[in-house]
Amino acid sequence: MGERVTVVARFKAKEGSDRELRELLLSLIEPSRADEGCINYDLHQAFDDPALFVFHETWESKELLSKHSATAHIKQYRAKAKPLLAEPPEVILLSKISS
Predict the structure, then answer these.
(1) Is 62 within 8 Å of 7 (Cβ atoms)?
(2) Global pTM value
């Protein structure tokens, strides 16, 4: 179907919104891990900045990642997240080159 794709997605909460954004992002984990093609879907929070969150994800292919992006849970996240974010999310797609 295609090569695996790794996603690093960075989210910065507005001041005072870090707890709410954290809960919203955590709510994506269970349904996203159940999406076809999901190998891992892990949320991280910065030690030195509680408003900074990073997802590390691995998908079987870009096609299956695109299907995930069109799911109801991702659409619901997008509808709720905008007022909580200090800036637009940064999403980087990567291809693993080491063994």
Answers:
(1) no
(2) 0.94
